[in-house]
Specification:
Layout lengths: L9 H7 L2 H14 L7 E5 L5 H6 L5 E6 L2 H6 L6 E5 L11 E7 L8 H11 E12 L4 H8 L11 H5 L8 H9 L4 E10 L4 H7 L2 H10 L7 E9 L1
Parallel strand pairs: 1-2, 1-4, 2-3, 4-5
Antiparallel strand pairs: 5-7, 6-7
Length: about 230
């Protein structure tokens, strides 16, 4: 795979990421933890390590792989964390895993099915792939269409572009990626109701408000900010 500088976004994660972004990563960890299996985990695309820190307290062995060395360098060094500097397309893991975390990866890559099929070969027989992506049907995107700010909910907005997104999934298109790779979907859900932009939420909402809209997401997963799929062989 070519070393495309456009695929690295360390400047965003290190200098432009909002506190609410990090809060949502922690919420996604809390939601996804119920599906973790075994003692070994591969985290694909750890960014600056917000979820990595939490995963390292759960799994005996945690491998992380990212194509951006700047991001790998800011992740805490711990005995149970092994870092790999590689594009996913070129990565050959030294072992197989009980749990593979694929958080906010598939919207970035050129060939999502290629990545899923590779991850499938890295998974132990009884293991799980846990994947998350931004949701095209998030209520804030649907509102943006009504306001004329987006042509359709699947069009890329300025934030999508700044983060290097190539597509925005809805649940149907997200599911299809895994079904086309002959994986079994054992859970599908969503995290956090997001009625406004993250900038607006960061400036105006209290911690209790944010937590309330996270809990509300359990009741209305189809319009959450993020979709989650758990898949097995």
């Amino acid at each position: 795979m070519k070393s495309d500088k456009n695929r690295t976004h360390s400047d965003y994660y290190l200098n432009k990421q909002l506190n609410i972004d990090k809060t949502l990563i922690r919420y996604r960890f809390d939601y996804e933890r119920q599906f973790f299996k075994g003692e070994s985990c591969l985290e694909m695309g750890p960014a600056d390590g917000v979820m990595t820190k939490k995963l390292s307290n759960v799994f005996e062995t945690l491998h992380v792989v990212d194509g951006d060395k700047k991001l790998l360098n800011v992740i805490e060094n711990k005995k149970n964390i092994v870092k790999f500097h590689s594009w996913f397309e070129n990565f050959t893991p030294p072992t197989s895993y009980d749990t593979i975390i694929m958080e906010h990866i598939l919207e970035h890559v050129d060939k999502p099915k290629e990545i899923i099929n590779k991850a499938k070969t890295w998974l132990k027989k009884e293991g799980v792939i846990i994947a998350g992506v931004p949701n095209a049907k998030s209520i804030h995107r649907l509102a943006a269409v009504k306001m004329g700010l987006l042509k359709t909910e699947h069009h890329l907005n300025a934030r999508d572009i700044s983060q290097g997104h190539k597509r925005v999934y809805d649940l149907k298109s997200f599911e299809k990626e895994f079904l086309d790779c002959d994986l079994n979907i054992v859970h599908k859900g969503g995290v956090f109701i997001k009625p406004l932009s993250f900038n607006q939420i960061e400036k105006n909402w209290t911690a209790d408000m944010i937590d309330g809209f996270y809990k509300l997401g359990y009741d209305f997963p189809e319009i959450t900010a993020d979709l989650v799929i758990v898949a097995t062989k």
